[in-house]
Specification:
single chain, Hypothetical protein af1432, 8-stranded mixed barrel, 8 strands, globular
């Protein structure tokens, strides 16, 4: 990704948008923070002016939230291809003169439009904008009240699996929020499966011999399935079908094998089941921490540990047990343990930053500037998208 001027970038976080099949289909970017229209235009120029953003998140769309369509000038629109960018505007913008006409012009130009939140008092929804975006942290509309003919409708701020189910009943088909982190969503592991996972984690953390990994993989049909699927995927273009563990290990290479296995732990559902949304989130954290370490000049071993820290950071959600218990028997360096347990040290502060998003104080505490944040975020999303598509 291109290096950017730290002074030219707003502190913006990308938020995954998934469909009802637990597949990422877009990333949300919110520029509604009350900035004046000319400042929002500057932000769009900084974020979309270089080719990196839409290239990094391909083939996903970008849902761009703005306060008012008046914030978009012809020059700004030239940076936002309608086939890749969905425009969401605050419903209250309809109170301003000319907003309905601007929305109609955007629809005629081929943009997909969403109206976000309540409409301005006394204003009707324009016929060109029938799709809804809504912050559902305070509740969803009445079940069945959103017509699928006018969607897809986006529910954001979905913070639990219970709220997700409620939003689905309402008629939303796109979802964004922290519901993948809901601890009630963790599928309980039986004792044998849990011991096997912890054993594999210990082997990965101790740089175990490939034969030891192979012996344990043979005991885990779900993990073996995902590993063989990965080795035969487009990510590793090989001309021979991979049918055995030794072949898979040889194709992936030891370093890549360990990295993929750290992530494949999250893909333990049945072969025909829904993807686990913890998988791309773990990949996202792993990729961002690795990239920040690389930018600091960290060597290969340091980058591997940064990657492992991000990848392991959701194990407590996956296994439904305290992180301290998971780490008790893993031979991890002290600074990795401190990062995972207490968000301490450079790795810990950067993990906290990856979890919560950009904040001036957190950035300073983690010794990360705006350009480093943005560059590492693009790298991490590119990596997470590839992981989700190949597992």
């Amino acid at each position: 990704m291109a290096l950017l001027d730290p002074t030219s970038l707003p502190l913006v976080r990308l938020h995954p948008v998934a469909n009802s099949r637990n597949e990422w289909v877009a990333l949300r970017m919110d520029l509604t923070g009350g900035a004046a229209p000319e400042h929002a235009s500057d932000d769009i120029s900084a974020l979309f002016g270089a080719p990196d953003l839409l290239a990094a998140i391909a083939p996903l769309d970008c849902v761009l939230h703005l306060a008012d369509p008046a914030q978009l000038t012809p020059n700004q629109l030239s940076l936002l291809p309608p086939q890749r960018v969905v425009l969401a505007f605050a419903g209250g913008a309809l109170a301003r003169e000319g907003t309905a006409q601007r929305l109609a012009a955007l629809a005629d130009a081929g943009y997909r439009l969403l109206l976000d939140g309540p409409l301005a008092f006394g204003k009707a929804r324009p016929p060109q904008v029938r799709a809804v975006s809504l912050d559902c942290r305070i509740g969803a509309p009445v079940a069945g009240s959103l017509s699928p003919a006018f969607g897809p409708h986006l529910a954001r701020g979905v913070d639990s699996v219970a709220r997700l189910a409620e939003c689905m009943r309402t008629g939303f088909t796109l979802f964004s929020g922290d519901y993948p982190l809901d601890r009630t969503a963790a599928r309980p592991q039986d004792a044998t499966s849990r011991r096997r996972i912890l054993g594999l984690l210990a082997l990965l953390a101790s740089d175990a011999d490939a034969r030891e990994l192979e012996l344990l993989l043979k005991q885990d049909p779900a993990l073996s399935y995902h590993l063989l699927k990965l080795a035969n995927s487009a990510a590793f273009a090989v001309n021979t079908t991979i049918t055995g563990y030794a072949q898979a290990i040889a194709v992936l290479g030891r370093r890549q094998l360990q990295r993929w296995l750290q992530l494949l732990l999250y893909a333990r559902s049945e072969a025909d089941g829904l993807p686990n949304l913890l998988l791309p989130l773990a990949a996202l954290r792993a990729g961002q921490l690795e990239m920040l370490c690389k930018r600091d000049g960290g060597d290969r071993d340091a980058q591997d540990l940064a990657f492992m820290t991000g990848a392991f950071s959701l194990l407590d959600r996956l296994l439904g047990m305290p992180m301290a218990e998971i780490l008790a028997d893993l031979p991890l360096p002290a600074h990795v343990v401190a990062a995972l347990l207490a968000r301490e040290g450079v790795l810990g502060r950067r993990l906290a930053l990856s979890e919560s998003g950009p904040d001036a104080a957190l950035l300073a505490d983690a010794d990360v500037d705006a350009a480093a944040w943005w560059d590492s975020q693009l790298h991490a999303h590119h990596w997470a998208i590839q992981v989700a598509r190949n597992v």
